[in-house]
Amino acid sequence: DAGVTQSPTHLIKTRGQQVTLRCSPKSGHDTVSWYQQALGQGPQFIFQYYEEEERQRGNFPDRFSGHQFPNYSSELNVNALLLGDSALYLCASSLGPGQGGTEAFFGQGTRLTVV
Amino acid sequence: AQSVTQLDSQVPVFEEAPVELRCNYSSSVSVYLFWYVQYPNQGLQLLLKYLSGSTLVKGINGFEAEFNKSQTSFHLRKPSVHISDTAEYFCAVSNQAGTALIFGKGTTLSVSS
Lengths: 115, 113
Known about the structure:
The complex is a heterodimer.
Chain A: E1 5-7, E2 10-13, E3 19-24, E4 31-37, E5 44-50, E6 53-57, E7 64-68, E8 74-78, E9 87-94, E10 105-106, E11 110-114
Chain B: E1 3-6, E2 10-14, E3 19-21, E4 23-26, E5 32-38, E6 44-50, E7 56-58, E8 64-68, E9 73-78, E10 87-94, E11 102-103, E12 107-112
Parallel strand pairs in B: 2-12
Antiparallel strand pairs in B: 1-4, 3-9, 5-6, 5-10, 7-8, 8-9, 10-11, 10-12
């Protein structure tokens, strides 16, 4: 079982650019959540996808958007990058509602640096 | 709204000593509580979770935590730490299984010999 895999592991972008981060959930999981972890801080919830729809969203601007594919993998897109978007982006997968999923499994993260 | 406060940003301790990492939460509804560990340049690994039932929860690597509803706390303990326990520890809360986790700012545990 490969667990949750994220790509790329590191990324450097310029202010104003757009970025796409990718996540493959743990085998058998159908729900994907994204978190932003700034340096020295705890992770902050961005949004969660289930059945290819955004199920829950945190306090992030519309520049942050996502997508879930039929195979349950997910993408996080950030437009018009700001320096403050520099962070570790974590993907977590879990079982969907009604399936008894109580634990989120995290990937290694994508380190995004905006210059 | 839910929130989590980790009362200590850094906890230095000697090897084989006991340790307690403190976590308080606020929530207007029932909560699920979690402790995660993060080693340098890695993702988060679940140490233990409280969903319901016994207030004393045992997790991996010899860690345990006690849910105290009246004190709204969920402190993490280990009776004897190892050098390898050096890491960042995060307390988290959610109001429903499988939904968004609200994390504290983390506690850095530094174990020295």
